[in-house]
């Protein structure tokens, strides 16, 4: 049973767990089974299949995005400019007209005054970046060049392309299958539904943008409450496997990639287990914004979970859209989401990178940490200390600061930077804008960044020394 209060819903009582004999499993009809298998294969190949490409191992999703942004930079630039302008203009129109103009529903573009201002700021900044107007320092590779030519281009392409394939996967049974199998792990460890494993998987193998897109869709369908969303967004919007490889290559440590990735994975799990149990996450209400659709309470053997997972997936595929309908809806939703967040990312991210590059703020903040880093036995402490803080602007900046340091310092900063998760060049404003109805607030993200850093600094230092002692660094 659920109770509606205003525009939110709460679940009054948790149903008792049932076993496999108490559940009416779906019949395995040929076409629904085939739809699920094809959709699962499409998603698995596109996001997960390792393939050699230009001397590296990557996934088809990364190849597609890299080819689009690399082969057609001018087209992507025009597209990025246009979609930022569209997002800002449509938001302004929606705010001025109560969400409807000439019979068109623009309510999805309505937002708070702060995010309206940020989208408008994006509208003003985008032409400056596109036409390279203004002073040269605005367009350097570590500031405007990073934001416009790398992050804006990548996010602008990643979301609509990823949305096509992830929507096919989700709408035709993939979410039910992965979620059911992951339930025994996700609920006790992280206090989220098993289906949250798909959001995390989408971030690991594709992009945090795709993971957040999945989270938004499930939230709007009643599959998550606000605390679920807050947890998933702040603890599992991870840097992709491919980008961890970029970090390793930048540090000239690509042969150590398995060690870097293994430490990163361990750090994300440990910090997630701890942070979900303390404020601010633990204080977020368990409210839904749609009629609640919680996961079926279930208890059984591993074989029972597999049977239930297949049954739930086939049932979803039977009720779901066609492949063409799911792809079209995913692409349209992806474009809409991109128009909502890309201007915000540009405005906030440019401010953050300029602050990092042209002010002593982060050096000043990092200076008190120098003796702490030194006490932990990490070399080049004076360089490493600011790198532990500056990651809040953009996770790649700390990596650039330590390219000339000792191996242990490189490993420490590389793992720490990708494990901090929250940075304001992209994922921070994306969370705040996409989930303003949770809400995810700036102060919460700053607090969680600090808390993660406090947890991770000694943890990563310990891992660094352990690997060095084993002769692996």
Key words describing this protein structure:
single chain, 473 residues, mainly alpha, two-stranded antiparallel ribbon, two-stranded antiparallel sheet
**Total helical elements:** 20
* Strand/helix succession: EEHEEHHEEHHHHHHHHHHHHHHHHH
Note the beta-strand portion. Answer: under 5%
- Overall spatial form: globular
- The low-confidence runs, each spanning 5 or more residues with pLDDT under 50, are none
How many strands in all?
6
Oligomeric state of the chains?
single chain
| Largest sheet composition | 2 strands, antiparallel
Kindly state the percentage of residues in helix.
55-70%
* Order of the strands making up the biggest sheet: 1-2
User: What structural class is derived from the secondary structure elements?
Assistant: mainly alpha
Average pLDDT over all residues: 88
Radius of gyration: 22 Å
- What is the terminal-to-terminal distance? 55 Å
Pfam family, one: Gate
Keywords: Membrane, Transmembrane, Transmembrane helix
Transmembrane segments: 33-51, 72-96, 116-134, 146-170, 231-251, 257-276, 337-357, 369-397, 409-427, 447-472
Domain Nucleoside transporter/FeoB GTPase Gate: 153-251
